[in-house]
Structure formats: structure tokens, C-alpha cells
Amino acid sequence: MDQRLSFVTLATPDLDATRAFYATGLGWQPLIDVPGEVIFFQAAPGLVLGFFEATSFNRDMGLDGAASLSGVTLAHNVDSEDAVRATVAVMEAAGGTVSTPPQPGDFGGIFHAHVTDPNGVIWEVAHNPGWSVAEDGTVRFG
Amino acid sequence: MDQRLSFVTLATPDLDATRAFYATGLGWQPLIDVPGEVIFFQAAPGLVLGFFEATSFNRDMGLDGAASLSGVTLAHNVDSEDAVRATVAVMEAAGGTVSTPPQPGDFGGIFHAHVTDPNGVIWEVAHNPGWSVAEDGTVRFG
Question: Could you report the predicted ipTM of this complex, rounded to two decimals?
């Protein structure tokens, strides 16, 4: 099995709030947008981040009710501490809630913040001086 | 904010089982492996899939106890129905549990299966004839 992820799909109770945050607020371009069902955004080469209406999510898994999301975080790495601050400001203006304001992390020289989207999806926005992505997409930790 | 995901991190109670499944069983190469804390695997260009010990996950979020994972699925797309069957066999041999055997999906000509890893992480393995990834990593649905 190749070491490759094609989709990350998150159960989401309010797709209108998702659209307002990612598409309208952040300017992300949906790959597919089916109101009341799913919204997909490409989020890395070959990788799609999907938001799937929480009741449909459970139905697809053969379960009743609405799925709730827990135990997952997403991260967005940027090139500088100023870019962390600027990104957090953009996310807050789009309707995100800042739970950890931009600040140094506990180790490794990281500088980061946590912002929650309108459905409770936790994003870490981070500058990690030891992190780099090569031309071919290879990730390195320094 | 760029339309870009750098990490997907999942709370995981048993990192030894995670290592046995992904590294030993599937042959994935860890980017970082800190026993009892985290294991990271690169899973797309510029994108890392992280498994974070569930108690540490909650502590980082300022919560007590161990985080549990719900409301998220991962997907691995392959080029043919036979590749779905072969991938599912490899995942099962590595210790995964098949909850949906390889079969046609409800729409779009998709052929897929669901396999759960030893910590309950749900993977869809799918062949979708309308899905393609261009040379530059752009995803297209036909």
C-alpha cells in the first residue's frame, strides 16, 4: 500500500457555516460543493479535505444520528512568526475563534496559535524553523 | 490564507499498534517516531499524517483524560478495482479489520471498501473512475 492519503473527510453539522468560513472568508476554491451534503477543497497535491454533513456521514457508516468530530487537529505551517499572526487575523475575520493566541510553543522553537472553525474543527497555525518542504514535496524536520 | 494543509493529527490510544500496522505491516517509512508520544508519516507532497498519543493530545488542548477519535475518515484512492482488492488484502494482513468488503458504491461508478486500523481509524480504499490527479498534483473529478 503506497504511503498516500487521497481524502481527509470530517463530519460537519453546518455546511453553510463551513462554506462561509473557507470559501467566502478565506477565499478557498471548492472542488465540489453540494449544499447540505459535502464540500471538498484541494489541500495538498493529490489531497482533498472534505466536509461531510454529519447525519449523512453516520448514515454512510451504517449508524443513526449525527457524527460528532473529536480527536483530530489540522495544521497549516507558514514561513514566519508574522505570517502566523497574519493568518490568525484572517481566520478570525472569517469567523474563526482563537483559542491559543500566537505565542511560542513548548519546544523546538515553534511559534503557533490555535483557531477553531465555526464547526469546531481545530487548526494549528505554526511557524516551525526546523520544518521545510523540498521542491518535490518531501517534508523535512531540521 | 493559502489553501494548504500541512498536518492531519489523530488521537491514538496505542502507538505500538499504530507502528505495527503502518510501519511494519504496510511498510510506511516514519518521518519521526517517538515511542509513547507521536509517529509521523508523510502522506502527500508537503502533508504529514500524525498519530499522537491520546492522553498527550488532550493535555496539549488543556483537557484531562484521553481524546477519542470520531467523525473523521481517511481515503486512499487506487487505479483499479483489482488494486482495491489487493490493498484491502494487504491492510487486513497488517492487522486491519474489514468492515465493508470491496464492492460497488452507491453512485458515480465508485468501487470501494472500508478497513479500520487497530486504533479504529477508518480508511476507505476506493477506485473512482472519475478521479484523477494531474502531474502538478491537481485533483479532478470527471
Answer: 0.95
